């Protein structure tokens, strides 16, 4: 696995996101209020809504189309909804946001 340097942490607003073009489509990189970063495919498992445009609270994002609640750590939808947005590994190192790329 290799790590792609996305940007400086401060370039993503707290409770905001950044879109990265991945090999299978857009990846949303989210920043929580506690400066944790998470990355999910930018498609809600329900109707494909852009998760990057959703509201972030705690370690969840609400899809802007139908308000599905998605866990940032796992990509899983909260019950009673069912589905999963593919999760990508992301981390902050030396103030930089890094996204894992599978070799």
From TrEMBL:
<comment type="similarity">
    <text>Belongs to the bacterial ring-hydroxylating dioxygenase ferredoxin component family.</text>
</comment>
<feature type="domain" description="Rieske">
    <location>
        <begin position="4"/>
        <end position="99"/>
    </location>
</feature>
<keyword id="KW-0411">Iron-sulfur</keyword>
<keyword id="KW-0534">Nitrate assimilation</keyword>
<dbReference type="InterPro" id="IPR036922">
    <property type="entry name" value="Rieske_2Fe-2S_sf"/>
</dbReference>
<dbReference type="Pfam" id="PF00355">
    <property type="entry name" value="Rieske"/>
</dbReference>
<dbReference type="GO" id="GO:0008942">
    <property type="term" value="F:nitrite reductase [NAD(P)H] activity"/>
</dbReference>
<keyword id="KW-0813">Transport</keyword>
<keyword id="KW-0560">Oxidoreductase</keyword>
<dbReference type="GO" id="GO:0051537">
    <property type="term" value="F:2 iron, 2 sulfur cluster binding"/>
</dbReference>
<dbReference type="InterPro" id="IPR017941">
    <property type="entry name" value="Rieske_2Fe-2S"/>
</dbReference>
<dbReference type="GO" id="GO:0042128">
    <property type="term" value="P:nitrate assimilation"/>
</dbReference>
<protein>
    <submittedName>
        <fullName>Nitrite reductase</fullName>
    </submittedName>
</protein>
<keyword id="KW-0249">Electron transport</keyword>
<keyword id="KW-0479">Metal-binding</keyword>
<keyword id="KW-0001">2Fe-2S</keyword>
<keyword id="KW-0058">Aromatic hydrocarbons catabolism</keyword>
<keyword id="KW-0408">Iron</keyword>
<dbReference type="GO" id="GO:0046872">
    <property type="term" value="F:metal ion binding"/>
</dbReference>
<dbReference type="InterPro" id="IPR012748">
    <property type="entry name" value="Rieske-like_NirD"/>
</dbReference>
């Amino acid at each position: 696995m290799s790590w792609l340097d996305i940007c400086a942490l401060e370039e993503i607003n707290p409770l905001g996101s950044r879109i990265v073009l991945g090999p299978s489509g857009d990846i949303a990189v989210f920043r929580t209020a506690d400066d944790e970063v998470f990355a999910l495919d930018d498609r809600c498992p329900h109707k494909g809504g852009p998760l990057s445009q959703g509201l972030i609270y705690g370690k969840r994002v609400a899809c802007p189309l139908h308000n599905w609640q998605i866990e940032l750590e796992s990509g899983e939808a909260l019950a009673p909804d069912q589905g999963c947005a593919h999760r990508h590994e992301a981390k902050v190192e030396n103030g930089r946001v890094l996204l894992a790329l599978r070799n």
